[in-house]
Every structure is written in C-alpha cells, then in structure tokens.
Amino acid sequence: MFLIPDIVVRFYHRMASPPHYYAFTKQIMPWLVVIFVLLTGAGLYGGLYLAPADYQQGDSYRIIYIHVPSAWMSLFIYMVMAITGAIGLVWRIKLAEVISISSAPIGASFTFIALVTGSLWGKPMWGTWWVWDARLTSELILLFLYLGVIGLYGAIDDKKIASKSVAILAIVGVVNIPIIHYSVEWWNTLHQGPTVTKMDKPSIHVSMLIPLLLMALSFKFYYLIALIQRSRVELLNRERNSQWVKTMLSEQQQ
Amino acid sequence: MKPARKQRLILIGLMVVGVSIATGFALKSFNDNLMYFFSTTDVVEGKAPKDSLFRLGGMVIKGSVERPNDGLMVRFKLTDFSKDVTVEYTGILPDLFREGQGIVANGKLNPQGVFIAEEVLAKHDENYMPPEVKASLKNQSETGKGQ
Fold first, then answer.
1. In chain A, what residues touch B16 (CB-CB under 8 Å)?
2. Could you read off the pLDDT of A166-194 as tens digits, one per residue?
3. How many CB atoms lie within 10 A of CB A35?
4. Suppose A85 and one of A167, A184, A244, B95 were both cysteines; which one would form an S-S bond, judging by CB atoms 3.0 to 4.6 Å apart?
5. What is the ipTM of this complex?
6. What's B46's domain CATH number?
7. Closest to A194 in 3D by CA, of A74, A80, A71
8. What is the span of the domain harbouring residue A67?
9. Is A252 within the bounds of a domain?
10. A189 CB near a chain B CB, below 8 Å?
C-alpha cells in the first residue's frame, strides 16, 4: 500500500477499530447536527420562500427540493451499502459490515420518499399518480432491493453469515443503479430528463439551483447522522460480549 | 495484498461484470417493451400496433388545438419534428397540457389514421426558470428573428 500516504492508512486503521469509532462518532455528533440544521434551514428558506415560482408549474415545482435530493440519496446510499459490503466481504472488516447494513433502512426511506413525492407531483402535472415507465419502475425495484437486504439480514440469526449474504445481494443489485440514472436517456419515459447532472450547464435557473444544492447537502448530513446513530447501536449489539463494551458499561455504572 | 483477499476481490469483480453483461443482454432484447411510448414517425411508418391500445408521445403543434363541437372533444396534432399525427381526445386535460408541450396519449388508431386517445398525460421538460426569465428569453428570440 505504498501509494496511499501513511497518515491516511493510520486513520483508516484507527477508524476500523470499533471502540475508536464509537468514541469518535460521539464526539463529532453535535457538530454534524448543527451543520445539518443550518443547511436545512437555509435550503428550505431559499427553496420555499426566496426562489421564484416556475414559469410553467407555478409553486408545484417546489417539491423538487425534497424529491430530487431524496432520489439522489437513494442511489448514493445504495452505492455506499454495496461498496462497504464488498469491503466487508474482501477484508472482513466488522465496521464495514455494520455501516453497510445500517445504511439499508435509511436508503429505503429515501427511496420511499422519492417515490411518494414524485407521485404527488405527478398527479397534477402529468395527470397520473403512477406510470410503468423505465425511471419509475427501476426506482421501485431499488426500493424492493433495499427491502430485500433488510429482510435477508433479519432472517439470518448468525450476523456474520447474514452480512455476507446481504453484501452479495447488494453487489448484485448495483447493476440497477446506472439503469435508474440513464433510464430517461436510454428509453422514452414520461419522467423528464436530467436537469442538474448533465454534461452541459444545468437547465435550471441559478436562484432555484442553489437551494436545491443546499438541500442535497443537508440530506447528506442527515444520512451521516442517521447512519452513525444506527451503526453505533448495531456495533454495540454485535460487540456486546467484547471487552471494550464491558469496560465502558462498568465505567458508566460507577 | 494477501492471496485470499485478492481472490475474493477478483471474485466480486467477476460477479459484477457477469451480472452487468446478463442484464445488458436482457435489456437489449426487451428494448422495445421498455419504451414507454411510440413516436409519431413510428405511427406514420406503420410500426405501431393497428388494433390494440398503445401510447403515443410527441409535441403538440402550436396552433393545432381545436374544439370542433364546442364540447369536451379536443383535436390536436402531435409531432416529433419529422412526421405529424392527429389526435382526438374527450375529457379533462392535465395542467401542463399546452401548445408546444410534450405529451403522452394512450389510445388506438382509427381506420382514418387518427389517434383516438383515452388518456392524455403531460410530459414535463427538464427546464426550470422564473416567469420573468422565460419572458426575457422569449423577447430575445423575437428580436433575434426581427433582425
């Protein structure tokens, strides 16, 4: 590993140790919450109050400040889940397995929010709650993949075996991610094409774009907060027989 | 890297590649079914089904929307900028239905080649801007034409 600087390797090894992770995340948590609250406040104020109405959709377009960040998060969290799952499979790092499975319910929630908000917007704008076009269907499959991961993990009692099975399921499902992203370009869909993430300049006015990016960032921080909370509980549960958890508990009881 | 880890990493890589290739073939063979709608050119060239319901997508030609009988029946022309198809629809149109707007209609062709729609959905484009910007863009393009 001569390509990676020594500090990075040392940080990585320290973070991979459960007691250190547990203590470190407790320290940074208040900061994350403060940043999240500030970003969400700024994003919502900008999006719901400062940003002008759209020339065609009026105020209805404002659902993009929830819908689009949720949809981005649903893809992003899936990639985190699959990559940490793969790291867990290859290097057998306990923490990677914990991060992977703790991401699943959060990703499933974001996918659900993206589907519901899209449906609510679709009824007045398209004239229908739901159509079976490529984008909507592949996003629904993503929700089922998340639910499959959660279900499979819960169904196996031995959490070591459960983590391995779940990681393989998550990695197989990765094939769906580019399909969701490119579905609006590869096929005729009712869903519109990409607005922000296309190669040339975004086709959204800058006064509407900035709150959207703020909201996207705020959702990232929400994910981080929720992930840390879930992973700490999962870690304690898995390590309940280890020495550091016992020491910590006996220190707290005194 | 230890051999066992390397082996596992290669195995995962092969799994991803294999699944991607399999999905690629599957999507390629189902390509036509994954298209949500037919274009107007497909209909004019006879690629669309004759007797069954299908979806037709295109842009509503400016100035083509008319209500012949003063009722709910609307007649308009759809285009994909090469061929046109006439559509007839009886019912309430969605908010975003406008001339110059993309729509998707579900229905079937009658013997005269007119598409009788049972359902009309508006297809929103990916552009978002305030009304003032839209107005100034319109002014610019109009003055551009005048020169």
1. 171, 174-175
2. 999 999 999 999 999 988 888 878 888 77
3. 16
4. A167
5. 0.74
6. 2.40.50.140
7. A71
8. 33-51+61-240
9. no
10. yes
